Amino acid sequence: MRFVIKFALYFAALCIFMAINLLPEATVSSLLIAAVVLALVNTIIRPLLTIVALPLNMITFGIASVFVNVLTLVIADGISGGILASPFWVKLVIAIVIMAIDNGVRYSRNSVRGRLNEISN
Questions:
Q1: 96 has which bridge partners?
Q2: What is the pLDDT of residues 9-40, one digit of tens each?
Q3: Three-state secondary structure readout of 3-20
Q4: CA–CA distance from 29 to each of 34, 61, 69 (Å)?
Q5: Which ranges of 23-120 does DSSP label H, i.e. alpha helix?
Q6: Residue among 12, 88, 99 nearest 50 (CA)
Q7: What are phi and psi of 84, to 5 degrees?
């Protein structure tokens, strides 16, 4: 369980860092606080938002999930007291970058699992 929490914190920190390097307008005063808050919001609130947005997500063929990610960034920004000081459009691009990184990590993890299953069988 500790590994999962540490991974979520490091992953959130890495995603925020990469998004900031891609977007010079976005500023983060404390990467550690932003990573902790974003990891907590993604762990606790994001699954609930995903369930609520599921009908809209089905209608828009998954485009609503981008706005769920933007909403989690806005919630994390509100909880942390404005650490991610940026306008909505910058948060939208950050959410898209974080979503792309998350999908890349998920794809590579599933690929490694598949290869390990092939080796063990």
A1: none
A2: 656 766 666 666 665 655 555 666 777 787 78
A3: HHHHHHHHHHHHHHHHHH
A4: 8, 36, 21
A5: 31-44, 46-52, 54-59, 64-80, 88-120
A6: 99
A7: -90, 75
- pTM (predicted TM-score): 0.69
The two three-digit tokens of residue 12, written as one number? 């959130």
DSSP summary character for residue 45: T
Helix (H) or strand (E) segment spanning residue 22: helix 2-22
| Alpha-carbon torsion, ordered 88, 92, 94, 96, to 10 deg | 180
Strand partners, 28: 84
Cα–Cα distance measured from residue 46 to residue 44, given in angstroms and rounded to the nearest whole number: 6
